[in-house]
């Protein structure tokens, strides 16, 4: 019986993580709407603003970007194309590997990121603080299995 309860707890914890992710993404999408971007758009801008590309330049290979952004390759490509169309990023061929594509922030992309970053961080803090409070309440109600 203990094994089944442990499995139920594990599955519930997983579902709680998924629910938190969904709620947080919705909150971020709403909060970032005035900036003309969504949560995934911001995540790409944020990674490009913070990551130090392997070659030391200011552009990031798409494969390197994909390791930080949890989207399929095709979804990431469409997102980067949309950001490029909006003037927030530029794409170019890799000098050392003509098959590779690099992505870099434009000045407008850096500015949009800087403007949206405090709000994005505030939403993350609020959502994760709520999660921590909910976990404490749940632990107080549920004795150890």
Written description of the protein model:
Helix 1 (2-32) runs antiparallel to helix 5 (107-141). By secondary structure, the protein is mostly helical. Strand 2 and strand 3 form a beta hairpin. The chain has helices spanning 2-32, 39-50, 62-66, 73-85, 107-141; strands at residues 60-61, 89-93, 101-105. The chain is built from five helices and three strands. It has a three-stranded antiparallel beta sheet with strand order 1-3-2. The relative contact order is 0.14.
Task: Pick out its properties.
mainly alpha; 66% helix; 145 residues; 3-stranded antiparallel sheet
Topology:
Layout: H1 2-32, H2 39-50, E1 60-61, H3 62-66, H4 73-85, E2 89-93, E3 101-105, H5 107-141
Antiparallel strand pairs: 1-3, 2-3
Helix pairs in contact: 1-5, 2-5
Q: Helical stretch count?
A: 5
Structure class: mainly alpha
| Fraction of residues in β-strands | 5-15%
Largest sheet: 3 strands, antiparallel
- What separation lies between the terminal Cα atoms? 10 Å
| Average pLDDT number | 86
- Give the overall shape, derived from the CA principal axes: globular
Unreliably modeled segments: none
Report the strand count.
Answer: 3
Name the helicity range.
55-70%
Rg estimate, integer Å: 19 Å
Summarize, please.
By secondary structure, the chain is mostly helical. The chain has helices at 2-32, 39-50, 62-66, 73-85, 107-141, and strands at residues 60-61, 89-93, 101-105. The protein contains 5 helices and 3 strands; from the N terminus they run ααβααββα.
């Amino acid at each position: 019986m203990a094994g089944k309860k442990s499995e139920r707890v594990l599955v519930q914890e997983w579902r709680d993580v998924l629910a938190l992710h969904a709620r947080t993404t919705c909150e971020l999408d709403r909060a970032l709407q005035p900036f003309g971007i969504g949560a995934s758009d911001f995540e790409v801008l944020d990674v490009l603003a913070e990551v130090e590309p392997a070659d030391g330049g200011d552009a990031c290979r798409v494969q390197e970007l994909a390791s930080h952004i949890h989207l399929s390759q095709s979804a990431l490509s469409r997102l980067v194309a949309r950001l490029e169309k909006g003037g927030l990023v530029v794409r170019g061929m890799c000098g050392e590997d003509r098959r590779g594509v690099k992505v870099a922030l434009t000045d407008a992309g850096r500015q949009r990121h800087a403007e949206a970053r405090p709000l994005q961080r505030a939403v993350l803090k609020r959502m994760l603080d709520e999660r921590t409070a909910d976990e404490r309440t749940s632990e107080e109600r549920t004795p150890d299995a």
